[in-house]
Design goal:
It is a multi-pass membrane protein. It is found in: Cell membrane. Keywords: ATP-binding, Cell membrane, Hydrolase, Kinase, Membrane, Nucleotide-binding, Phosphoprotein, Transferase, Transmembrane, Transmembrane helix, Two-component regulatory system. 40% of the residues lie in helices and 24% in strands. It has 23 helices and 31 strands. The strands form six sheets. It has a six-stranded antiparallel sheet with strand order 12-11-10-15-14-13, with helices on both faces. A hairpin with a 2-residue loop joins strand 2 and strand 3. It is elongated.
Length: 883
């Protein structure tokens, strides 16, 4: 209440403003009411004129009006229609008359037949007329229009009108609404004036005019006296006030006040701060040759952005300190980026290029990295060898520096030569005055200086005691030469990169060793055999050396074994384990074991390997190794298959059908305790048997079923030869970086012709041996192998005799004419013969010794019911062989 009384007294600025606003609003409301009443009357009269004219013209042009006027009794026809039109259009009368002005219609019937009161001459001339007159029903507004026949002749007149009493009534009906609105406007204006006055009182703290004047004078004196710039801006960024110091510091124009800050010619950063109105504390901005510390606060304490006050002080003396801090920050950022961006891969050349790209143009205009040739191959650096320019980056591509891959031998006097010799960085601030650098290549040095390169830093790439190469930083665009601080930064930068390059070198060495080991453990050539036509592919993984392997093993009886395996993991351990497994399969295959039994022995071997290496925490177990073992017999065209956790083989038949035979899936090698089952397949001649590792059909994005279906489609569309099949299968693989090794074998089956096979049953009678020798002699003569008759007869005689003495019936003899002449003797006994050396007094024991001397090789193959003792002899050089 006290505040309100203070406002109403008028002693304060707020009270005076209140009364002034109240009087102004009252005058405006009175004027508005008068204007609204007059406007309402004027609008009502105009509305009456328009409506009466519209009704008269509408009725005059209505259908049948002319016929009604020409009828014997126009009143009878027109009076109802006129009254209906009057009521519908809300006028006071609609009168139809003849050309003499005699009424045919009127709202009051007693006026029909009397003379019309009003002006009719213009209407008789064809022009409508609107007028205000004193008519028979009072003061009114009426319109008179002609009625014309089709020939344009005026045959009658129509008049419509509204009394002024009704027009005034409409205006008077609106008057309460107008007065009410005026009263509401007055009340709102009074309340608004009171609020404005109260707000003004709050802002002026109830001060009177004289007090306000004194306060302004004191404030103005302070603004002009302080040695700190002060600027006041409104919420739109328009400069309201700037003291003398602000004008001096910002070099403001004379007419700066009232202009937007964007129009004052300030730098973009300062303009953005001033126009934003945000809070700022001691933010430093370079303005001309000064460094200004800017503080800014909003003028509204409540935080609503209505404007801002900015204070500015000159901190030019801090320029040097600020510049050094900025340089230090940039150098720290560069070192941080070096730690993150250099060494993203284990590739020596790429790591060197990452160093070059990082330093250009942030530190130098050109950067070159030269490494010893042996370092690129993963070896130890050779100080006597040449270097190769491994990486180069620059702001321009046409600089006359040595190109990438160029071989260089730096002279001892050059900065690079001194860095390599001493292991220390060298700063050459002025290349045009450096004879030691120019001695490297005088012609090219002159071109470099002429190009604009004027300063150089060379830093050796050191990894411990090893110097891997040298990095050169060249400057051309910045006129200042490199200094000692930049030399220290270059050393730190190269030291971080040297660690990554040395890691890449070590990885390259280990990777090369692993690849060499792996290549040495894989078959380089396939053994000679006639049972299968074979093509193969091996694709190493891009990420590292894997453990995929394969082999082709000739067996007795013209049979051939195919094997593929996969050791989970990468690196030397996987490659070495793969070599051990391949050697084991070689040894086990010499026992002529069925595929299931061979995998069981291999599984036991892997288990023993894991037990032996269990004590070494750095060696991972071999669990996860898989293997697929296949034995094909060209005589029976049957194939025996067993697998240990490996994908099944694919079979492409001669008719084009592709299938994946149902081979029992045994567990991966090393789990132990579980048997491995074999599957028997009969393959038509010309079938293609496809063995592969999981890298061909699996990846991180697709399931194995997708890969198998892709393999099926590739085999169905491939050519008939194994080589064409290999190409088609690999072409069908998804492009991209291979994450795993791929081993692939495609074997097309052949069958041994029936005329190359001879079989004889032998009864358990010693006399049958002679008959057998005769049959063998005839068959060898038929094959053109007479040179082998003596040895073959002796071999078979000894083997059959042993079968009669130590084996069991039935006894069967088979000869195969393949790459070798193969003699096989079957009996039902499982007792294996042993080679022994008979003494001079022994009567027997020399038979197998003779067989071993006459045959190229011999052995025993066990069957489910009995055994086969076999011997192979080399063929003479001339006879034909199986094709």
């Amino acid at each position: 209440m006290a505040g309100l009384r203070s406002v109403l007294t008028g002693r304060s600025v707020a009270g005076q403003v209140f009364f002034l606003l109240l009087v102004m609003v009252l005058l405006l409301v009175v004027a508005a009411v008068v204007a609204l009443v007059l406007q309402a009357q004027r609008d009502s009269t105009q509305e009456a004129r328009n409506r009466s004219l519209a009704v008269a013209e509408t009725f005059a042009n209505s259908p049948g009006i002319v016929e009604a006027l020409e009828s014997p009794d126009p009143t009878a026809v027109l009076q109802p229609r006129a009254e209906a039109a009057r009521k519908a259009s809300r006028v006071d009368f609609v009168v139809v008359m003849n050309t003499d002005g005699i009424r045919y219609t009127h709202p009051r019937p007693d006026r029909i037949g009397k003379q019309f009161v009003g002006t009719v001459a213009p209407a008789l001339a064809g022009e409508p007329v609107v007028e205000e007159i004193d008519g028979t029903i009072g003061r009114l507004v009426q319109a008179v229009v002609p009625v014309e026949d089709p020939d344009g002749k005026v045959v009658g007149l129509v008049s419509a009108g509204i009394t002024l009493e009704n027009v005034g009534g409409a205006a008077e009906a609106q008057l309460p609404l107008v007065l009410g609105a005026a009263a509401a406007a007055l009340a709102l204006a009074t309340g608004g004036a009171a609020l404005i006055s109260r707000r003004l009182r709050h802002q002026t703290h109830g001060l009177g005019p004289h007090e306000m004047t004194r306060m302004y004078e004191h404030h103005d004196a302070v603004l002009h006296a302080v040695r700190e710039g002060v600027m006041i801006l409104d919420g739109d960024g328009t400069l309201l006030l700037a003291n003398d110091e602000a004008r001096r510091l910002f070099s403001l124009p004379e007419d700066a006040e009232g202009r937007h800050v964007r129009d004052l010619g300030l730098d973009p950063a300062t303009t953005e701060l001033l126009s934003s109105g945000r809070t700022a504390t001691d933010e430093v901005f370079p303005v001309g040759d000064r460094l200004l510390a800017v503080n800014q606060r909003p003028t509204d304490p409540a935080g609503r952005h209505r404007g801002s006050v900015t204070s500015v002080r000159d901190t030019t003396e801090l320029r040097a300190l600020s510049g050094r801090a900025e340089e230090s920050r940039e150098r720290l950022n560069m070192l941080y980026d070096a730690g993150v961006g250099i060494g993203t891969s284990l590739d020596v050349a790429r790591t060197a290029q990452e160093l070059s790209d990082l330093a250009v143009p942030r530190f130098a205009d050109f950067v070159t990295v030269d490494l010893f040739e042996s370092v690129l191959a993963g070896g130890q650096p050779d100080a006597a060898a040449a270097l190769r320019r491994t990486a180069r980056a620059g702001v321009d591509e046409d600089a006359p520096l040595y190109p990438r891959d160029h071989q260089i031998r730096f002279v001892e006097s050059s900065p690079q030569g001194r860095s390599l010799a001493t292991g220390r960085a060298v700063l050459e601030p002025r290349l045009d005055e450096a004879p030691g650098w120019q001695a490297q290549d005088k012609e090219r040095s002159a071109q470099v200086v002429e190009y604009g390169v004027h300063s150089l830093i060379t830093v050796p790439l050191r990894a411990g005691s090893l110097v891997l190469g040298v990095v050169s930083f060249w400057r051309s665009r910045k006129p200042e030469p490199f200094d000692e601080e930049e030399l220290a930064l270059a050393e730190e930068l190269v030291a971080r990169a040297a660690v990554s390059i040395d890691n890449a070198r070590r990885y390259t060495r280990e990777h090369s060793m692993a690849v060499t080991l792996q290549r040495s453990l894989l078959p380089r050539t396939l053994p000679e055999q006639n049972a299968l036509e074979i093509a193969y592919r091996y694709l190493p993984a891009q990420a590292g050396v894997g453990g995929d392997w394969f082999d082709v093993l000739p067996l007795s009886g013209a049979r051939v074994a195919l094997v593929v395996g996969d050791v989970v993991g990468h690196g030397l351990h996987a490659a070495a384990t793969m070599g051990r497994l391949r050697t084991a399969v070689h040894n086990f295959s010499a026992l002529d074991l069925p595929p299931g039994e061979l995998l069981a022995l291999l599984d036991e071997l892997v288990g023993r390997i894991d037990q032996d290496e269990a004590q070494d925490e750095h060696v991972a177990p071999v669990i996860g190794a898989t293997c697929l073992y296949v034995v094909y017999d060209p005589v029976s065209r049957r194939c025996s298959v067993a697998r240990a956790g490996h994908p099944p083989p694919a079979l492409a038949r001669p008719d084009g059908r592709v299938e994946f035979p149902d081979v029992p899936a045994g567990p991966p090698l090393g789990l132990g305790g579980l048997p491995f089952e074999s599957a028997e397949l009969e393959l038509p001649e010309g079938s293609r048997l496809v063995l592969y590792t999981d890298g061909l059909v699996e990846d991180r994005e697709h399931d194995i079923d997708v890969g198998l279906e892709r393999l099926r489609e590739a085999l169905a569309g491939a050519g008939g030869s194994p080589e064409e099949t290999c190409r088609a299968v690999l072409d069908a693989r998804r492009p991209g970086k291979a994450a795993d090794d791929v081993a692939l074998i495609v074997a097309r089956t052949r069958a041994l012709p029936a005329d190359r096979i001879a079989e004889w049953p032998v009864p358990p009678d010693p006399a049958a041996v002679g008959e057998l020798r005769a049959a063998v002699t005839r068959k060898l003569a038929e094959w053109g192998l007479d040179e082998l008759t003596f040895g073959t007869e002796l071999i078979l005689s000894e083997l059959v005799t042993n079968a009669m003495r130590h084996g069991g019936a039935p006894i069967q003899v088979r000869m195969l004419y393949e790459r070798h002449l193969i003699c096989e003797v079957y009996d039902s006994s499982s007792t294996a013969p042993h080679l022994r050396y008979a003494t001079m007094t022994d009567e027997g024991g020399r038979g197998l010794f003779l067989v071993a001397q006459l045959a190229e090789r011999w052995g025993t193959r066990y069957l489910p019911a009995g055994k086969v003792i076999w011997a192979e002899q080399n063929l003479p050089e001339t006879p034909g062989t199986l094709s």
